[in-house]
């Protein structure tokens, strides 16, 4: 029996219509769909892809929202073990991830473990959340010779990141939004910032004046800072 194939599937930012034809085809053809889950997680990725999954069996992979390296290592290894067992049975497995599997993706940590064990593991790109956010805000991320910087807001390495030339995309800004707002005010770029929450999902908000916020926003929040453009 030949081994199966693991596909890391990017399901895009939220709107099922933004899934690629290749992602849809593989979901329709695969044997098992692997879904990351964590405490309090509403399983957003599987909800986006639900109409293409049908009644296929689901493999839930626990991915705790933690920075504890030991816990993360254990969860990633367990998911890789479970997926490899299915691949050994000749099954094709599609591992879902929001946005694109190469951008701050939980699935990547599992994917590379499976690949390092010698299995056939492939990636299927999806529409990144920050591209969807820019589209919903009606702005271009970069123009001409501008540079683009993708920065994880919750792990931001000091204020120097905000002084980078070009457009800054601050990912996962929800919990730190009020602190980020003050940091942007301090370096003089607050008026050039727009926040998009839940881009292309139900409950989407586009906020062009961050001073309107008086509390933190949700997990699916992105700030785009266009240099010199209010």
Keywords:
230 residues; alpha/beta; five-stranded parallel sheet; five-stranded mixed sheet; 30% helix; 22% strand
Topology:
Blueprint: E1 5-10, H1 21-29, E2 32-37, H2 44-53, E3 58-62, H3 69-88, E4 93-97, H4 106-116, E5 120-124, H5 129-137, E6 148-152, E7 167-171, H6 177-186, E8 193-197, E9 205-207, E10 221-225
Parallel strand pairs: 1-4, 1-5, 2-3, 2-4, 6-7
Antiparallel strand pairs: 7-10, 8-9, 8-10
Helix pairs in contact: 3-4
Task: Report the C-alpha radius of gyration, rounded.
Answer: 19 Å
Helix content: 25-40%
What would the principal axes of the Cα set say about the shape? elongated
Distance between the first and last residues' Cα: 60 Å
Oligomeric state of shown chains: single chain
Question: If helices are DSSP runs of H or I spanning 4 or more residues, what is the number of helices?
Answer: 6
Q: Mean pLDDT, nearest integer? A: 91
Strand content bin: 15-25%
Biggest pleated-sheet summary: 5 strands, parallel
Polypeptide structure, described:
The protein has 230 residues and is of the alpha/beta class. Helices cover 30% and strands 22% of the residues. It is built from six helices and ten strands, in the order βαβαβαβαβαββαβββ. A five-stranded parallel β-sheet has the order 3-2-4-1-5, with helices on both faces. A five-stranded mixed β-sheet has the order 6-7-10-8-9, covered by helices on one side. A hairpin with a 7-residue loop joins β8 and β9 (205-207). The protein is elongated, with a radius of gyration of 19 Å. The termini are far apart.
């Amino acid at each position: 029996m030949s081994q199966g194939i693991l596909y890391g599937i990017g399901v895009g930012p939220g709107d099922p219509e933004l899934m690629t034809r290749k992602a849809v085809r593989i979901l329709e053809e695969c044997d098992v769909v692997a879904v990351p889950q964590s405490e309090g997680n509403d399983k957003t990725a599987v909800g986006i892809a639900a109409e293409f999954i049908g009644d296929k069996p689901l493999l839930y992979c626990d991915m705790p929202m933690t920075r504890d390296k030991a816990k993360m290592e254990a969860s990633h290894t367990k998911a890789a073990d479970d997926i490899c067992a299915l691949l050994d049975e000749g099954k094709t497995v599609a591992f879902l991830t929001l946005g694109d599997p190469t951008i701050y993706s939980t699935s990547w940590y599992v994917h590379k473990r499976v690949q390092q064990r010698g299995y056939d593991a492939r990636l299927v790109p999806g529409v990144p959340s920050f591209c969807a956010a820019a589209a919903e805000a009606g702005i271009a991320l970069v123009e001409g010779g501008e540079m683009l910087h993708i920065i994880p807001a919750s792990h931001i390495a000091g204020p120097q990141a905000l002084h980078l030339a070009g457009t800054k995309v601050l990912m996962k800004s929800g919990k730190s939004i009020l602190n980020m707002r003050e940091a942007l005010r301090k370096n003089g770029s607050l008026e050039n910032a727009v926040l998009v929450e839940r881009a292309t999902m139900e409950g989407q908000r586009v906020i062009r004046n961050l001073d309107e916020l008086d509390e933190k926003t949700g997990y699916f929040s992105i700030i785009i800072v266009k240099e010199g453009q209010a």
